[in-house]
TrEMBL record:
<keyword id="KW-0812">Transmembrane</keyword>
<feature type="domain" description="Partial AB-hydrolase lipase">
    <location>
        <begin position="295"/>
        <end position="349"/>
    </location>
</feature>
<keyword id="KW-1133">Transmembrane helix</keyword>
<keyword id="KW-0472">Membrane</keyword>
<feature type="transmembrane region" description="Helical">
    <location>
        <begin position="134"/>
        <end position="157"/>
    </location>
</feature>
<feature type="region of interest" description="Disordered">
    <location>
        <begin position="92"/>
        <end position="115"/>
    </location>
</feature>
<dbReference type="GO" id="GO:0006629">
    <property type="term" value="P:lipid metabolic process"/>
</dbReference>
<dbReference type="Pfam" id="PF04083">
    <property type="entry name" value="Abhydro_lipase"/>
</dbReference>
<feature type="compositionally biased region" description="Low complexity">
    <location>
        <begin position="104"/>
        <end position="115"/>
    </location>
</feature>
<dbReference type="InterPro" id="IPR006693">
    <property type="entry name" value="AB_hydrolase_lipase"/>
</dbReference>
<protein>
    <submittedName>
        <fullName>AB-hydrolase lipase domain</fullName>
    </submittedName>
</protein>
Length: 701
């Protein structure tokens, strides 16, 4: 009788889970299909979706999915929950009931498990049904009564044999041999564990809903299963009730539910008491969002890593990251653009990332990060949001970049001296290394502003070459959307600045939601294509992979880069004036206090102060900073006598950092190699002392 009830509950449970699973998937398929219909009506989608792989307008139809208990034994939900709890890095246990293990049938991975090679949520777009599935479906239902009639007596015989075996005492050797046979089983997908550390591990919103519904159904049926077990086993129920009021030994309490004590011991030795491991496991398992940092990406790929905290003169804490090559006399400093971070320089892996390419060429690589993270690193711990976000591009150029470059100079000079303790350098004593800059978008404008302001202040900028990828600075040639934003910031700026100090996602929940939606956009290609098309309309039809950028790990629930209102207002001022100018504080007196003139500095007029070679790179498909605006930089520099070069590639705006472009990497590396490392003559300390003595002994004329 107990087995009949168990079978009825198992069949009902799997049927309910299958029904809810298919209902949710049908809703998702309807959304995907509706998005496909909208995509067919939107103009210009072919250019926008050109760089988006795997999207399709017409969803693939398939027959209903068979319940998993009809595929391969009982549900694998318990197996999946165990994998979830130990985060796929520990050995997983087979949580199937012993009744079905005796059939020799291994449970399939859960559709939401990380060990599954393909997400079930992507099946509506990738899976093509076959006519044999329908035949299998009909045959299974036709043979179901006979299967149940044959299964019940066989199971009763197995159950009787198992109870007889439990009555026999187990020797220690037999216990060790027969317990936990699943430890010797190969875990599905475990051979892919190392690559999965550098790939997307997230679940999407749809997958989270499926998991939540499955957990709820499993909990409800587990309650009814235990209740039925107690009702059909009065003697065992009576024994459990007596155990509540008795003072028996702990060993007499472990006979219910076939739960052995060694399971409890094993969970205690998995490092759960370690707070750092617990926090990391909670992040990756419970929320299942990609919270990897630039450090995680670099170290997982086998490269060295160093994090340096830099504090600016106005109190902002910056993260300067490094792939160190301490004895190198050539270094490169990479600076990101707006709403980006150092992650952009390493996001394409070993082959396609500029940071790794430069390191492999012998460079000491430094990755800069502007101020503007949601975490708000500042020396004033209680700084208000309004005060923290009160900065423009001026502060990026006159505070952030100088602080990071001076820190690089301090590190390199001290390290290089350690490698030659008995020698001192004669040539270029002040800077025994060459430092080049590779910057993108807003980072390019900030670097140009930095070089010019340092020359005006008669301070060394310590740079040997500038490689600017689609640099900001001139923006008068743009689309209607940017023009609308321009006038919005110019006329409503005084009011909006008091209400919205910056643009970012303010809460962890919505940042987590964005992180998960990015996964759903990949699982449901028509939805992702629709979002990609709408976002590209906002930026003038730029065909960058905007959906892919939303899935970058630096947009996670814990932190993300933001953009201050003043930075956006500064860009609007530049676009409106048609000149590359510093921030206008709104009044002649305020500008006089900062610049010594009633108008902000026009940096284009000071391009003649740039004394290092400059390489400008534009994207022919770039609609954010059009090639005409990069050519404007080139013409002004050329007319000012700057050693400047110009090149164009078939790229959109984000392709310079986010996409894998071999020809761009080859070009950037070729320009970096034009700068020869510092050549030093070395003499012994006695020779240096003699030279200094001779120089101090010369009469002054």
């Amino acid at each position: 009788m107990q087995r009949i009830v168990d079978n009825a509950l198992a069949i009902t449970k799997e049927s309910v889970k299958t029904l809810t699973y298919e209902s949710l998937n049908n809703i998702a398929r309807c959304i995907n299909g509706f998005s496909a219909l909208l995509l067919t009506l939107l103009p210009g989608k072919s250019n926008v979706l050109e760089g988006l792989h795997g999207w399709e307008l017409r969803p693939t139809l398939r027959g209903p999915r068979l319940p998993r208990w009809m595929h391969n034994g009982v549900s694998s939900f318990n197996h999946f929950i165990h994998e979830l709890s130990v985060d796929s890095d520990t050995s997983s246990l087979d949580y199937s009931s012993g009744d079905d293990d005796s059939d020799g049938m291994s449970t399939p991975p859960s559709p939401l498990s990380q060990s599954s090679l393909r997400s079930w949520a992507s099946l509506p777009a990738n899976y093509e049904s076959h006519w044999t599935d329908w035949i299998t479906f009909i045959v299974w239902w036709a043979l179901l009564p006979a299967r149940i009639l044959l299964w019940v007596p066989l199971y009763l015989l197995r159950l009787l044999a198992r109870r007889n075996s439990r009555m026999q005492p187990l020797s220690p050797g037999r216990y060790q041999h027969s317990s936990r046979p699943c430890f010797s089983k190969a875990i599905p997908g475990k051979e892919h564990d190392v690559p999965n550390r550098t790939t997307d591990k997230r679940r999407g919103v749809i997958e989270d809903l499926q998991l939540g519904i499955e957990i709820f159904i499993e909990t409800i049926f587990d309650f009814f299963h235990k209740a039925a077990h107690l009702l059909l086993s009065p003697s065992e129920t009576f024994g459990i009730v007596l155990s509540w009021f008795s003072s028996s030994s702990p060993s007499s309490k472990g006979n219910y539910g076939d739960v052995s004590d060694d399971e409890i011991v094993q969970t205690a030795i998995l490092g759960d008491n370690d707070s750092s491991l617990t926090e990391r496991r909670t992040t990756t398992s419970l929320y299942n969002t990609d919270t990897r940092t630039c450090q995680d990406v670099i170290t997982e790929l086998g490269y060295p890593y160093e994090a340096i905290r830099v504090v600016t003169s106005d109190g902002y804490g910056l993260l300067l990251e490094r792939i160190p090559r301490r004895d190198a006399r050539k270094a490169v400093y990479l600076q990101h653009g707006v709403m980006d971070s150092s992650m952009g320089w390493v996001s394409n892996g070993v082959v396609g990332s500029p940071a790794f390419a430069a390191y492999d060429q012998g460079y000491d690589v430094f990755l800069g990060n502007f101020r503007g993270l949601v975490s708000r690193d500042h020396v004033k711990k209680n700084i208000s949001s309004k005060d923290f976000w009160r900065y423009s591009i001026n502060e990026h150029a006159t505070e952030d970049i100088p602080a990071m470059i001076e820190k690089i100079h301090e590190i390199k000079t001290s390290e290089l001296k350690l490698y030659q303790p008995t020698m001192e350098e004669v040539v270029n004593e002040d800077q025994p290394y060459k430092l080049c800059v590779v910057s993108h978008s807003l980072g390019g404008a900030a670097v140009l502003m930095y070089v010019i302001t340092r020359k005006i202040e008669e301070k060394p900028h310590r740079l040997s070459r500038l490689i600017l990828l689609s640099p900001a600075g001139f923006h008068y040639d743009s689309n209607m959307c940017f023009t609308l934003m321009e006038y919005t910031f110019l006329f409503l700026g005084p009011v909006l600045s008091r209400i919205v100090p910056a643009f970012y996602i303010p809460t962890k929940f919505f940042r987590m939601l964005l992180n998960k939606l990015a996964r759903d956009f990949h699982n449901y290609p028509a939805v992702g294509g629709l979002v990609q098309t709408l976002m590209s309309y906002v930026v003038g039809g730029d065909s960058s992979n905007w959906v892919g950028v939303m899935g970058l790990p630096h947009y996670n629930m814990n932190d993300m880069p933001g953009i201050s209102f003043r930075v956006a207002q500064h860009l609007a001022q530049i676009k409106h004036s048609g000149k590359f100018k510093m921030f206008d504080y709104g009044s002649s007196s305020a500008n006089m206090d900062v610049y010594g003139s009633p108008e902000p500095l026009d940096l284009g007029e000071f391009y003649g102060l740039i004394d290092v070679p400059v390489d400008l790179v534009a994207g022919k498909k770039d609609k954010v900073i059009r090639p005409s605006m990069v050519r404007k930089h080139y013409r002004v520099m050329r007319d000012s006598g700057v050693d400047v070069s110009y090149n164009e590639f078939e790229y959109a705006h984000l392709d310079f950092t986010f996409s894998h472009r071999e020809e761009l990497l080859a070009y950037v590396m070729s320009r970096l190699l034009l700068v020869e490392p510092t050549q030093t003559q070395t003499v012994h300390k006695k020779g240096m002392k003699l030279k200094k003595k001779m120089e101090t002994g010369k009469p002054h004329l």
